[in-house]
Amino acid sequence: MKNALLLIFLFLTRLGNAQDTLFLKGKIVDEEQLFPISNATIQIGDNQAISDKLGLFSIIVLSNQLHTNGINISASGFQKLHLTDINDSSFLYLTLSPLVKSYSDNVSVTFGGKDIIRRVYENISKNYETHAFNQTVIQFTQTHIDDTVYSLNDLAELKLYNSGLDKKKNSFQIQLLQNKQLLKDFPIEVKESKENMNWYLIGAYELFPKSDVVFNNYSFLDTSHWNNYAYKLMSKTKWKNRSVYPIRFNTIDSAKAGIEGVVMIDSATYAVIHVNMHSNWEMRQEMAKRNKGTDFFDQNSIQYYYDGKYWKLESVHLEGYQIRSFKKKNHQFDFIEDIINYPKTYPSVEKIPFFKRVIHSAKLSSFNTPGTDESWKPILDFIHTDSFRKEFPWINLSLFGF
């Protein structure tokens, strides 16, 4: 009888310890410009983790360690951070302050973030094409479930269309040129999720390719929504050898605005040349509800380049995760998506024949249209180059068969 009681006691003790184990994941970024911080140290008691080149980290701890010690984060060039009150144990988005603040001290009191954005509007016609345009991009998407099983990977070439600067009507369209989709076996039944991800992959483009689309969809740039945001102008800095004004924007009314981040304005032309933004806590909760899950996180980085006359899309980087329930069990979906301006990055490629099917960004039927091996060769040659791997090191090419 004593042996039986001892076994029961040991079982309950082990079960209690297992329930106290927490697997924490998160991302560490620069507070001022939201750039990822690599090699940051995350310390919880005796347990330690290091952030990777994307600022991501994961650490396994016991809940009593977390409660007793809190979390200590440190990185070279940044102030140390100690957290004791943690209300989100599924994904921690942490910001570190630089040791030397770079908030603007060389601009007048009347010259602030809103003044810079107003000048952006005044110079739209000079900085962006206002007539019809075509632009070809490559999409890389990699999604995996629960850190182990990759579920959906896409490699697609798309052509973007827009009829020009039209504030009343968004006539933006996508034409699918070529597509390869590597769909591996799902470890769970997620037909609904598969459909949602297909919609998400296509639908993401309507925000990025052109000035009219950007300015009409990003409320922080819209003067009629300025009361929903707080703007902080930081001192001039360099971005890809351009002098820029970084403007940090945060939401005041979360019910009316859901994104926060940093927008960089070229000081010479007053064009938006880089945006780094993420969903705030309230938007994360709303997106989780829409996706029938418990949590959602995403961060976007959008980059433009100057062709000597106009500013054009160069690349978009999207990363995030969501937790959704299937058959009463939670699963975590991590996703990374890159949209790269193909001709700009690899201009020597000859024009590739494309399918004669134009679709609106919300239609999905042509997403499964396959391309031929011959037509893919120039793109595949480009992907194999060292320059591609150096410029986009986060793309896991092994997922796409490289």
Automatic annotation (TrEMBL):
Keywords: Signal. This is Carboxypeptidase-like regulatory domain-containing protein. The keyword Signal applies. Residues 1-18 form the signal peptide. It comes from Pseudopedobacter saltans.
